[in-house]
Amino acid sequence: MNFQPFDQKTLRKICQIEMTSKRLVDNIFAGKYRSVFKGRGMDFSDIREYVIGDDVRRIDWNVTARTGTPYVKLLVEEREMTVVFLIDASASAQFGTRKRTKSDLLAEVAAILAFAAIYNGDRVGLLVFTDQIEHFIKPKKGRSHVLRVIHDILTFTPKNRGTNLSVGLHGLNDIFRRKATVFFFSDFLAEGYEKDLRVAHGKHDVISMCLEDKVERDFPPLGLINLEDAENSEVIRVNTSRSVFRMKLKKSTDEYFRSRDRFFDACGIDHITINTDQPYVEPLVKFFRKREQRIHG
């Protein structure tokens, strides 16, 4: 495993994140978390004889064949769920032009959601990928486990720099056989993942956590500079003082993000955009309210 030990600097940062997260969970998300993540799965409880009007999909064919009388399965809602943080750790996650990088931002937001999960008795797991599966933590309960998850998100150094969102989605489906609530953190600056995301959302409840930086939409006039692709090290020289260049870049980027969001909407995938230079509380609150209204009317 490729992550740093618990040094004092990291411990202080984790403690600060925990205090901030606890305050937000207690004051803002209290009561909302459980209500917006109901009905993720059902557990077998018992069987009884079939009566007219029962859902035929619940017939227990083994018992029916053995007894000669149709029986149906009785199901109860799972009392706990599994929450998975699916993290795109490619080199672009280290990008950030203001107070923090995308990776710093996702660690803080993941911490809030992780503490909300354990306060409700749920299991929390972690799956980190680039263009290969890099790190996995099996879902468990409890504060010490969540602190380890947050620590690893903060300190993990991936072996590779590239992005392949499909690799992460395949890993998710291979590892997690039962339905989970999945917070998928990425800047989604990739192609060819749409089919795999659609499949994953058919099995799990996937929420796309879209990480953005202001510069990606509004590039500043910095003159003649070299731009390096963080993932493949390709360098191009551009004149950022030219308004035509900045306008074309903004138009292209805005259209890409609109297309991405339209895809999420068409698939019924909830998505939250969080920015490195903006507070993340408001987008989270808006997400919880919107989802609660959709579920409860």
Strand order of the largest sheet: 5-4-3-6-7-10
- CATH architectural label of the largest domain: 3-Layer(aba) Sandwich
Portion in strands: 15-25%
Query: Could you estimate the helical fraction of the residues in percent?
Result: 40-55%
**Rounded Rg:** 22 Å
Distance between the termini: 45 Å
Output the CATH homologous superfamily of the largest domain: von Willebrand factor, type A domain
Order of helices and strands, N to C? HHEHEEHEEHHEHEEEHEH
- Uncertain parts: none
Tally of contiguous helical segments: 9
Q: What is the CATH first-level class name of the largest domain? A: Alpha Beta
Mean pLDDT across all residues, rounded?
84
| Main sheet attributes: strand count, strand direction, barrel closure | 6 strands, mixed
Classification by helices and strands: alpha/beta
The shape, in one word, is: globular
Number of strands: 10
How does this model look, in words?
- This protein is α/β, with parallel strands linked by helices and 297 residues long.
- The chain has 9 helices and 10 strands.
- It has helices at 8-29, 32-36, 61-67, 102-119, 143-155, 165-175, 194-203, 243-267, 281-296; strands at 42-49, 71-77, 82-88, 123-129, 133-140, 181-186, 205-212, 224-228, 235-239, 270-275.
- The longest helix has 25 residues, at 243-267.
- The radius of gyration is 22 Å and the shape is globular.
